[in-house]
Design goal:
alpha/beta; Rossmann fold; 5-stranded mixed beta barrel; 6 helices; binds hypoxanthine
Length: 275
């Protein structure tokens, strides 16, 4: 990270901190189609990204993103609505800016959600999947550049980037709620074109169960900063070529997310209650 970026980050953190009463217990980054999963709960504050000095206004289809901070399921929760993707032309620093801000605010836990394509032949469209690990195929790492010691070490361990205890908690909540969840490895592809069937076969051989275009930069910076991370994915479609007769559309991704959104919301609320 360069000096200018670090200065921007500190400025953004100061501004957000001045609007908060305490440190949120958990930050939630809600992906495609899930950003309204909780509506606008009562009693919180909304901070548009555009009102945070230093915050890079991300190129996000539709809006520039906002944070809601308030009480939810007995916790103080920060919800990030609208994330920046690398394929949108944002720099990798911009993509991971919000997550770094959460870390500097002292938020101990990050829950990230996304939509993904199912590579594992045992998965179905609509499955909810707890992420166990990832493979970074973005060709870029958000920690590139000078390391900021206040954020974390130069060479952070990624052996347990997805906190096993949070996954166990999510499994327990899912069992209580009668929600079926699977577990799998997520590979981040650059996009925005969906993958080719040959790429999906290669990712399968590499050990990936799901493919998507987000999440990995955020998880790398969160793990770097020592945050606990839970990754939740909706497998919205079978990845390219898994069903040789199918074609992929963004509409299918949005529709499956809509159909599974309520179940995902129940799962997340149960997790928040038990955190
Ligand atoms: N590939 C990449 N990203 C995705 C997919 C996919 O099949 N589905 C939802 N996001």
């Amino acid at each position: 990270m360069n000096e200018g970026h670090w200065a921007k980050l500190k400025k953004a953190v100061d501004t957000v901190r001045s609007k908060l009463e305490g440190t949120p217990d958990v930050a939630m980054t809600l992906g495609s189609g899930l950003s309204n999963a909780f509506g606008l709960p009562e009693g919180g504050v909304t901070i548009p990204c555009a009102e945070i000095p230093g915050f890079p206004v991300p190129t996000i289809a539709g809006h520039s993103g906002e944070f809601w901070i308030g009480p939810l399921c007995g916790k103080t929760v920060l919800i990030q609505r609208g994330r920046a993707h690398y394929y949108e032309g944002n720099t990798i620093e911009e993509v991971s800016f919000a997550t770094r801000m959460f870390a500097l605010l002292g938020i101990p836990t990050l829950i990230v959600t996304n939509a993904s394509g199912a590579i594992n032949p045992d998965f179905c469209a609509g499955d909810l999947v707890l992420l166990t690990d990832h493979i970074n195929m973005l060709g870029v790492n958000p920690l590139r550049g000078a390391n900021i010691e206040e954020l974390g070490p130069r060479f952070p361990d990624m052996s347990a980037a997805y906190t096993p205890e949070l996954r166990a908690l999510a499994r327990a909540v899912a069992a209580d709620e009668g929600i079926d969840v699977k577990e799998g490895v997520y590979v981040a592809a650059l996009g925005p074109s969906y993958e080719t069937p040959a790429e999906i076969r290669a990712f399968h051989a590499m050990g990936a169960d799901l493919v998507g275009m987000s999440t990995v930069p955020e998880v790398i910076v969160a793990a770097h900063a020592g945050m606990n991370v839970l990754g939740l994915s909706i497998a919205t479609n079978l990845a390219a070529g898994v069903d040789p007769n199918a074609t992929l559309t963004h509409e299918e991704v949005i529709e499956t997310t809509r159909l599974k959104g309520e179940e995902m919301r129940r799962l997340m609320m149960g997790i928040l209650e038990k955190l």
